[in-house]
Protein 1
Amino acid sequence: MQVVIVPTPAEVGRLAAAKIGHLVRGRPDTVLGLATGSSPLAIYAELARQVAEEGLDCSQVRAFALDEYVGLPPEHPESYRSVLMRDVVEPLGMDPSNVHVPDGSAADVAAACEAYEAQIAETGPVALQILGIGANGHIGFNEPTSSFASRTRIKTLAPQTRADNARFFDSPEQVPTHCLTQGLGTILDATTLVLVAQGETKADAVAKMVEGPVSSMCPGSALQLHRDANVIVDEAAASRLTLADYYRYTFANRPAWQRFETPRG
């Protein structure tokens, strides 16, 4: 796992977006895994800037959403389909037909999950999966005790997760109780993982993910098993890392650090 500590939340987004932009420039039809929530917003804002100011072309990019609420119609403003269309697809000039989201309104949820897995397998592999991490260590909506071999499925949202997401709804009661999420096994199939975290509220989860034991009680710790997992955090989110100085030194002296930067000229 490569851990990168930067001064500010904006720099977290800039560095992750530089890596993604480099990938898209090299392969315009690359397959991305898209996360929602507040953590990746700085990534998408910086990618939108690259599109507007540097000519980054995302029109051929294919993408799969990490998760979706169960029971919200696709047109609901807080469905993840709507969020991705508003915050990612339109600003980046992506083709909506190339962006796939689990069907949280399906009559047969199990069949919808199987179909989503099959679509990822047919289109993929996912070249780069964007991730955030919850305060309880969840990635996607894989709550604590999720199997590391799990695939796309329905999950019950933990009370803490519903409380964290209540800010997006008019009242806590409106937050759905269930979701569809890519499983940890699905996530680990991606070629590269880029997880971003900002703020002190994520510090415990980041420390457990990076330096704690691999445990289903911290689903994010599954990244320790991946061959190319990149964790980009700001100083606040890194504040409980025991080896923070080592991570800074390692990144500063890494010969391949240029792969985080967008080539110029």
Protein 2
Amino acid sequence: MDEDVPRKRGPYARSAERRRAIVDAALEVFAAKGYLAGSLQDIADRIGVSQTSLLHYFPRKRDLLLAVLDQRDAVDKPPAGLSFPDDVLAQADLNARHHGLPELYTVLCGESVTEGHPAREHFARRFASLRDQYADELRGLAEEGRLRPGIEPSIAATGLIAIRDGLQTQWLLDPDVDVTAGLRAYLALILVDAPESEASVTPR
């Protein structure tokens, strides 16, 4: 076959592209309005398709929400090999470059505390997993003598998550809030040799 002849795009490729477009549109709508207020019609209108067409790919609004959450979790991640403190700071920088994703996270996380919300279990699992992961990392630092005396890893891990999310919420409301600097200050309180470099600063 002549390699210079462009190949026709098959139905699978077109279907995958349409699904991505729908998920991208849903991410924007849910970030702006929340899951409860953001309608399927809002999403369909954003990409110029009928609601019937949208339902062909995602029969339920809940299915679309789960696809949006999966996409959010699959976006940019810090490079491998960073120390735990540097990874925390690098993730904050990455979040700041994708304003819609922190906005989506904050809106849906807040909504998820209501009874029966379809994202409630997702966020409950996420927080439990992060607490375990961060506590394990801090225990490892304690074994290296890098965690300050008297600091309980599990409590410090819960505090780190709370401070990160709280700073991120403040940043969404006021771009002058520096999430990375706030996290660095917290790490300096609990670690003997916390990162001091100013090379990683939340973009504004």
Protein 3
Amino acid sequence: MVKIIEIEARLFLRDRLNSLFAVLFPSLLLLVLGAIPALRTPDANFGGQRFIDSYVSALVVFTLVFIGLQRLPAVVATYREKGVLRRLATTPMHPARLLAGQLVVNFVAVILSVLLLMLVGYVVFGVDLPHHPLGLACAVVLGGAGTFALGLVIAALAPSARAAGGWATVVFMLLMFFGGVYLPRFMLPSVIQAIGSYTPPGVEALQQAWLGTAPDWRHLAIMGLVSLVAGTVAAKTFRWE
């Protein structure tokens, strides 16, 4: 299993455009936004906080959604389309190990991206470190699990790698919208904000843990439920060839 993870990590790094984008883009975007003086000024719309303080949770949403929906489904569907999974099924190494390796490598990329975001925000702009680290860890793990599970459902049902990419892009754009990446959440209708709170990867839980207190257990529970349901669907519908 360790060897599989090592190989998948090398392949991840070889895909420099997507791998670097996934890990670095949130921090780079924070640097760009933080260069605008108005976004470094406390604002009543953000509860007296600065825009950049409030937006860090949306940047975590971007990381989870990009890796879970833009990269994972396309890679897994490509493996199936090229016969990699079928060939592995004829060896002592079950192809499920390959999927497990994919999940490990991609989740490590999420962790690196979030840690880099913390470092850049704190050192450059004085953004608070997470007020509830354990709550943030739970929110990232459960929100990431839900998002990755949705990505695996797409990989399982899509007839080709190209279709998987197209389907995943639609879901990617929706989750980015509900997660407040395109527009600050206070500008969205209350019903959209509520949907985003319970839609993977759970922006409300991420924001509560980063800038407030422990995240609402209901948000975490929904993320866990989505992970369980979507993971079950993916497992029952996944085709190795």
Protein 4
Amino acid sequence: MADMKAKYGLNMTIHHQPLGFSYGEDVIGPMPEVRTLDQIRASLRNPECSGPDVVYAIAMDVARLQDREELQKRMLLFGVVTYAAGQLGDEPVRSQGHIHRISQHSGWSPPELYEIWQGKAIVYMQEFVEDDPGRCFAVIAGPGEKVLVPPGWGHATISASVDEPLTFGAWCDREYGFEYDAVRAHKGLAWYPLVQDGHIVWQHNAHYMPGRLQAITPRRYSEFGITDEPIYQQFIDDPARFQFISKPDRTAGLWRNFHP
């Protein structure tokens, strides 16, 4: 993935053996953190399952050097995540289900904007992490497509490509934080993704009230000013464009009855 700068606005390389990242001279980022299978077992349908020892690598606060000051001023942060290929028992490789911790500077649980870089993803999201999960969506996205998770929704990012790694970037609030307790209390999110004959199927989690899962494809979110250009490049072109990520109150009306 040496053409990241041309494709996605950042001069960096994604590595899969071992999982991680390296940065070009004009890009700064942290040493990637890895999440092992043992660390995420509590969020899986079958905590005793087998799978890759290192499930995914994550680097939060990746940026061009010249953008650092602007990002700090706007309380924005760009993260990059890459998943191992394979399965976690009968589940696909995925993140832990969570909601975003309320940000002190905004008073909101921040939204998050994803862009798929490699592989095929399902961004699963549900309105609530209580017994009634509300509306539930599985947004199926491929390279270059964007998915917006609204404030306060429970969500997880799932690899729909069992035989290849999944990599994506995301705009986040600089005060990002993950809360897992409510999801873990329900033994996961309201729907479990399962791999069956190479395809993803869904099983309802009986710890939630019965409901309906809607499988959809991404849209443009034009009401937020998002275009088809890579999301980091969109920040370069217009640093104010993603202010709604760190200050979601500015678009409060757009979050009401939000449809992914």
